[in-house]
Amino acid sequence: MGEDPETVHVVGCPRMDLVAEVLSDGGNGLSDLFAVGVGGAFDLGQPFLIVSQHPVTTEYGDGERQITETLKAVQEVALPAIVLWPNADAGSEHIARGIRKFREHEDDSRLHFFKNLATDDYVKLMAKTACVVGNSSSAIREGSFIGTPAVNVGSRQEGRQRGANVVDVEYDRAQVADAVRTQISNGRYEHEPIYGDGHAGVRIADVLTRATFRIDKRITY
């Protein structure tokens, strides 16, 4: 990218520092989780799924069909699930419409829907869930660090390095359901620090104490 190689330092992602900190506190902190959001409540001590699926901007207009396939697969697996609202990328309205239609026309008594979750809550849920389903980068990044079984649906994460915890499938309810069952049977994966080992902050601070800064920059390509 034109940077001087001597000024490039591979330290890991600080997000993994936060994940490690949340996991190390030893507390559950999820007892009042169902006080927000809508839908049914269930025992988080028993197997449950997390559904987190966002629009793919290059597949604009297809989001409703895509999320419907995922939700139908979750329904077929017959485990309770936490369903998260999509992010704000182009096409999010199609994902949201698919979720609303599913809630209106299907039995959602074993599903709980959240528009937002605190980071601490999400990390703790990832450490407890039987499987994360959808196309969120968290299944690949935080998931590899935690060892969370994940089923990645569709093309959104193509080209991103992933660990053994991820199974890739197409937008097909049968494929998704089969992959989820396989991941549930497999259980927790080994910790893989692909995107950081929880000590990025220390490395960054160390680099900054030794770095020499220049205010000018010249691209070399």
Structure description:
- The protein is an alpha/beta fold.
- 38% of the residues lie in helices and 12% in strands.
- The chain has seven helices and seven strands.
- The longest helix is centred in the first third of the chain and has 15 residues, at 63-77.
- The termini are close together.
- The model has no long low-confidence stretch (mean pLDDT 94).
Mean pLDDT: 94
Major sheet attributes: 7 strands, mixed
Strands, count = 7
Order of H and E elements:
HEEHEHEHEHEEHH
Shape: globular
The secondary-structure class comes to: alpha/beta
Main-sheet strand order equals 1-4-3-2-5-6-7
Task: Supply the number of helical segments.
Answer: 7
End-to-end CA span: 8 Å
Q: Flag low-confidence runs.
A: none
Helix content: 25-40%
Beta-strand content bin? 5-15%
Q: Any idea what the radius of gyration is?
A: 19 Å
